[in-house]
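Annotated sample (chain length 179).
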Amino acid sequence: MPDMTNMATPTDDKSDGNALAVGNLVNAADPLTKKVLSAYRHDVDYTKNLDIIRTFNCAHLEAAASFFGASPGSHADKTKQYQNRTTLADYIIIQLESHFPCDCEGCGEGYAVKPGESPRVRCFLCQQGSHDCEAMDGTLGSLTGSVWLCLPCKDKNNKIETFMCNQSAEDPESVLSDE
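Output written by the structure step:
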């Protein structure tokens, strides 16, 4: 399972937007999926939501995964695409959160991917869709063979402290410092 600590998570000031995004998804969902999506809590962390969502039975989880475009049902060889409820719940949470409001790195405008929309590209880490604006046209046009990171994921990954190495030829045992 991926480490969710580096995934994009909306800031607290977007809590209302997150609740609205969940509400829009619930309104567009079938009855089984509505129950799963309604259980999601935008005011708690990923781990708590994973505990909540994975308590649903397979029929509910498979319906929710299908709502987001996965085909979790049986394959020709009678195997399931997702082997357990935790994996399905993880997929559902990532897909649900990809509809939360985000700021565009190109134009700075806030946007959200609406249910049923297919963004041109999705963030490699959190699956957030790209904004459809002129500023992003040039950025997305140069991505052939590359991955795209949304602004929150890019910001989180750029905040990693850069350390200078004080190691010298005279002292090969010196350590990294943040001076």
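Annotation: The chain has seven helices and four strands.
Annotation: Confidence is low (pLDDT under 50) at residues 1-12, 161-169, 174-179.
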